[in-house]
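Lab notebook, design round three. We kept the backbone fixed and only want residue identities now. Task for the bench partner: fill in a sequence for the structure below.
Input structure tokens:
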């Protein structure tokens, strides 16, 4: 197992529970330090993604599995609900498209709200109309990863930190991994799951015996978050109507302590860059005041940034998850996970289920 983000840990747990001997190789000095630690910590309902896509089906399946896992493993979470708001007649049309897609994806709990009904729920909200998604929630992502790792280790899995995989080679009866860092060695495995996030295409490209046409390009989409000083007047998440873009806009999310944060923004960058551009704050004020006109000057502070692991670039259609197993590339025992961005956290347990099936 290569990569100890939330998806990698979920896969390691599933494989260990299936009776496999599992070693998780992680290049950093802790688990879950990249995409898994730099997101909105939202449990998504499965509303936006194209019907029939992996993102749609695995999100809906994963959401149910994740709520059950949180309850059974005491992972902090809250099913707080989300309001998707429209400000114009054109955006009302967009909400209807979202509702129809959600129904096709198996999400049947969305509720239309009038302006008055929405404002009864969230008095500070400004909107023309809204959709309520009651099954959207928030989660402690670090607590989730701790629980996944603990369960994996209880079933015999081991985590090796500071152990970057530099090269892989397909050999008779398995795959050899050249591991650097603290664990510098060569390992031979019957099966390898590449869940290296941003590094997954690089590891695939460094796998001798995997045809190049099965290695996607990688792109980076950076998003900044700003946090609200003081108490939040909202108890639910608030998302603007997304329009035709795959980017869901500058939305309001909450952590489990009730702290509000806004984001992410969206900008293509050339490399991994976690610096925050404080100059974006004016854009945030404009976007947030469309649905919360009471936002005061000076109340937004720089928070953090995330970088989405993209395999499709600017101007290309939105990507789907790729779970490339032997059926796709012909290499026994190898599964490459590409383009696992949002809703990867929500879908993590369902992705793990799919990986186990691909290796069966």
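Proposed sequence:
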């Amino acid at each position: 197992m290569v990569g100890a983000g939330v998806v990698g840990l979920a896969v390691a747990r599933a494989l260990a529970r299936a009776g496999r001997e599992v070693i998780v190789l992680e290049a950093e000095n802790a688990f879950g330090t990249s995409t898994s630690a730099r997101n909105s910590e939202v449990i998504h309902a499965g509303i936006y993604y194209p019907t029939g896509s992996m993102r749609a089906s695995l999100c809906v399946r994963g959401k149910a599995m994740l709520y059950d896992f949180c309850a059974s493993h005491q992972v902090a979470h809250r099913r707080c609900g989300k309001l998707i708001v429209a400000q114009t007649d054109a955006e009302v049309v967009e909400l209807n498209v979202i509702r129809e897609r959600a129904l096709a994806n198996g999400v049947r709990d969305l509720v239309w709200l009038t302006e008055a009904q929405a404002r009864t729920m969230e008095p500070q909200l400004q909107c023309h109309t809204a959709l309520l998604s009651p099954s959207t929630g928030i989660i402690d992502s670090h607590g989730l990863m701790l629980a996944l790792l603990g369960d994996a280790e209880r079933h015999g899995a081991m985590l090796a930190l500071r152990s970057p995989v530099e090269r892989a080679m397909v050999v008779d009866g398995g795959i050899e991994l050249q591991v650097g860092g603290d664990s510098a060695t060569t390992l031979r495995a019957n099966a390898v799951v590449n869940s290296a996030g941003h590094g997954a295409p690089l590891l695939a490209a460094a796998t001798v015996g995997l045809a190049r046409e099965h290695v996607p390009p990688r792109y980076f989409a950076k998003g900044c978050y700003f946090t609200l000083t003081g108490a939040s007047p909202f108890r639910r998440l608030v998302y603007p109507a997304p329009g035709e873009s795959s980017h869901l806009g500058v939305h309001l999310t909450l952590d489990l302590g009730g702290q509000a944060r806004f984001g992410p923004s969206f900008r293509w960058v050339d490399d991994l860059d976690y610096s925050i551009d404080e100059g974006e704050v004016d854009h945030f004020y404009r976007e947030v005041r469309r649905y919360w006109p009471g936002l005061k000057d000076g109340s937004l502070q720089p928070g953090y940034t995330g970088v989405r692991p993209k395999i499709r670039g600017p101007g290309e259609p939105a990507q789907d998850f790729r779970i490339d197993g032997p059926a796709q590339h012909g290499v026994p025992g190898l599964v490459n996970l590409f383009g696992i961005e949002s809703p990867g956290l929500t879908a993590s347990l369902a992705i793990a289920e799919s990986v186990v099936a691909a290796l069966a």
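Keep this in mind before ordering anything: The mean pLDDT is 96.
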